[in-house]
Amino acid sequence: MAVTFECRTRTTMPPAEMFDRARNIDVHMDSLAHSREEAIGGVTSGLISLGEEVTWRAHHFGIPLHMTSRITEMYAPDYFVDEQVRGPFRRFRHVHEFRADGAGTLMLDRIEFSAPFGPLGRLVEKAVLARYLKQLIETRNRHLAGGTLIE
């Protein structure tokens, strides 16, 4: 069984600009600098596109982690999907959706993941990982919106 959650961010930026900011490797690294997130393989700078992969190195919970993600679906500028192909999760899927919304864009992030380690992993998913990952996505989204959030 997987854990799922959604983050909603409204910004005055147009959808196409948010679409490109969300798939920009450099912007992503800036947004998560506190976790020392760094692209070390595949696409390591600029925009990532359909079928391409990026390998990340980051520190979460004081542990160095590596994760390779591939863009498995893309329909510019409406949405794209990245999925883990190698890494710490049993499964990780992130849908990024961008909708024109009055004065700007509604950005929806839908995350679905499963931790490894059977029953222990399921306990950690619900007790720690879901909240941690949601806060990570919300931090990233505030950075992506660049101070143009609509409350």
What is shown here, in short?
With 151 residues, the chain is of the alpha+beta class. 28% of the residues lie in helices and 43% in strands.
Derived from helix and strand composition plus strand pairing, the structural class reads: alpha+beta
Low-confidence segments: none
Distance between the termini: 33 Å
Largest sheet: 7 strands, antiparallel
Instruction: Encode the helix/strand succession as letters.
Output: EHHEEEEEEH
Rg measurement, Å: 15 Å
The percentage of residues in β strands lies in: 35-45%
Percent range of helical residues: 25-40%
Spatial strand order of the main sheet: 1-7-6-5-4-3-2
The shape is globular
Count of β-strands: 7
Overall mean pLDDT stands at 90
Task: Give me the number of helical elements.
Answer: 3
